[in-house]
Amino acid sequence: MSKFWSDVVHKLIPYVPGEQPKLDNLVKLNTNENPYGPSHQVIRALQAEAADSLRLYPDPNSDKLKAAIADYYGLQTNQVFVGNGSDEVLAHVFQALLKHSRPLFFPDITYSFYPVYCCLYDIEYEEIPLNGNFEIDVKDYDKPNGGIIFANPNAPTGVPLALTEIESLLKINTESVLVIDEAYVDFGTESAVNLISTYPNLLVTQTLSKARSLAGLRVGYALGHKDLIEALIRVKDSFNSYPIDRFAEAGAIAAMQDKAYFEETRKKVIASRGVLVKGLQALHFEVLPSGANFIFARHKTLAGENLAAKLRDKSIVVRHFQKPSRISNYLRITIGTDGQSKQLINALSAILK
Ligand SMILES: *Cc1c(COP(=O)(O)O)cnc(C)c1O
């Protein structure tokens, strides 16, 4: 605390990311990174970028990257916004599109960065409880609001919401923006991207951090009607002219273009998820249905916090959330390689013996 801080800093409650422990031989299953490295084409593109041209600023509009993303989805470049990780994109979304006189709605259990942005930008919000199966019931959102945001599949539960439900929400909610945070959508959840040409108030955000194995490069994007995108550009150009550096742009373009590698690795992760779920169920874990590269599970008898600590003693890190109490017995476990899953199952068998 310091008298030099502005008022807003005094009241901030910053987001706490999963730890990046500096230990060797760690089985790291706590921050939903991809167990497979980025495509070789990405590595080559990054190497080519390590050149004299680094003395020049990058393209402030990232036009080539926007074109690569637009191509991938069959959209126009003016329907694409890019930023330094989807966290930055989301921050701009909160400020540009979700700050209104009515409260913003999001689920009581969802990405815990949302209330942090609300605090930063002074946005009033209302948390809508998930139902007993940790699902979003779109009927609960049918009242006047300043915007709606949730992750699909949701975080940290991994539970997907069907596209038909999202479309029914768009039909009843026409007066505010609906943001779907699709950080994990490529691991088996239906994307809402195809609805953006029909619904001018739908914005979809995605990231290259998970399914494209590039958490270290920091690139995320938003897709939506050009008027929504223009609002984001206005905020971005009042904040940082060059959020995408030369490496990030070159690497992200190569990642969007290497569809074969993307398909191969995401399918491997989905297959490993199926194997891990069976292994956990055999050890008497209850596992929520997942459309993500992680699962949310609790043991029938052992407490989540206790299990997480015992796994850590065996150099396996998973994520545990103390709050809200409804999820305090669950562990969020990232899908690693099949070898890592085996290490996890062996460690849990030993702990539970
Ligand atoms: C990982 C994640 C993000 C942020 O990803 P970036 O690495 O900032 O692109 C956004 N939303 C959810 C739900 C996430 O899990």
Please give the count of helices.
11
Proportion of residues in β-strands: 15-25%
Mean residue pLDDT: 96
Largest sheet properties: 7 strands, mixed
Q: Let me know the number of strands.
A: 12
Strand order of the largest sheet: 2-8-7-6-5-3-4
Structural class: alpha/beta
Can you walk me through this structure?
There is one protein chain. By secondary structure, this protein is an alpha/beta fold. The chain folds into two domains: 20-37 and 260-352, Alpha-Beta Complex (Aspartate Aminotransferase, domain 1), CATH 3.90.1150.10; 40-257, Type I PLP-dependent aspartate aminotransferase-like (Major domain) (Aspartate Aminotransferase, domain 2, 3-Layer(aba) Sandwich). It is built from eleven helices and twelve strands. The strands form two sheets. A seven-stranded mixed sheet has the order 2-8-7-6-5-3-4, with helices on both faces. Strands 1-11-12-10-9 form a five-stranded mixed sheet. The longest helix is centred in the C-terminal third of the chain and has 24 residues, at 259-282. The N and C termini lie far apart (47 Å). Bound molecules: pyridoxal-5'-phosphate (PLP). Pyridoxal-5'-phosphate is lined by residues 85-87, 111, 151, 155, 181, 183, 207, 209, 215, 220. Pyridoxal-5'-phosphate (PLP) binds at residues 85-87, 111, 151, 155, 181, 183, 207, 209, 215, 220.
